[in-house]
Amino acid sequence: MSFGMMDGYSYGMMSGGMWILGFIFWILILVGLILLIKYLWEGSGIRGGGQESALEVLKKRYARGEISKEEFEEKKKDLL
């Protein structure tokens, strides 16, 4: 076996094809990191519908009896 040869293939030929696999590997790592950051930035991803509007929260508070009808109407007028 001569220096630089391995079973008839030179190290240059072997590494020539391997750089493609290395390139694909790092691209996949980068895409994975981007998706992870996006997932963490936007929250857990379970919500789906986003946040409730202030009017929806106000309606729920009124329905639970936390605020009176007068207070509900006043705050609703302020929101709209």
**Major sheet size, sense and barrel closure:** 2 strands, antiparallel
Spans with pLDDT under 50 lasting ≥5 residues?
A: none
Query: What characteristic shape results from the CA principal axes?
Result: rod-shaped
Reading the helices and strands in chain order gives EEHHH
The helix tally amounts to 3
Helicity level: 55-70%
Radius of gyration: 30 Å
Q: Report how far the terminal alpha carbons are from each other.
A: 84 Å
Which secondary-structure class do the elements indicate? mainly alpha
Side-by-side strand order of the widest sheet: 1-2
**Overall mean confidence score, pLDDT:** 79
User: What is the β-strand count?
Assistant: 2
Strand residue percentage: 5-15%
What does this structure look like?
It is a single chain. A two-stranded antiparallel ribbon has the order 1-2. It is mostly helical. The mean pLDDT is 79. β1 (5-6) and β2 form a beta hairpin. The protein has 3 helices and 2 strands. The chain has helices at 11-42, 54-63, 69-79, and strands at residues 5-6, 9-10.
